[in-house]
Amino acid sequence: MAKIDLIQVKGNIQYDDIKKMIVDPYYSRGKTYCKDGLVFFVTISRDVSLGIGIKAKVFGGRLYKVELSYNKGFFGGTCSCPAFSDFGPCKHLAGTWFAYVDYSNNLYSSSEECLDAVERYKKRISRLSRKSKAELIEMLSGKGFDEDDIGEYE
What we know:
Blueprint: E1 7-8, H1 15-21, H2 26-35, E2 39-47, E3 51-59, E4 63-71, E5 74-79, H3 82-87, H4 91-104, H5 112-129, H6 133-140, H7 147-150
Antiparallel strand pairs: 1-5, 2-3, 3-4, 4-5
Helix pairs in contact: 2-4
């Protein structure tokens, strides 16, 4: 997974700071992801010395894993989507930053669509975790492979 360069900002993270890191069309798409409630926060940690750490799932065509950090005026992050590894900061990263800014101001909540996708993800993980190593290998080798078992999630 690629990483972005840390970008310095002053004070609390604002929408304008996100614009310094993420270019269009990813910036605009990220705003839409936030507005549509497609970000689910897994964890948000705040520590005086470590800064802010955010882990989220973002529902797009798939459910992607996003990790963000903000410490002493610098912020960065990663995303599991193919665009991030190919091009850098993506719409999922932008959407998560926007959602965090709104969340910090009590203005954000995940949509039902996003919550449903996260719930389906958890159920798939639970089903897969009950399978033996041999069953998993068989699934991945194409024998008994069911797209619904592996799913659309990163």
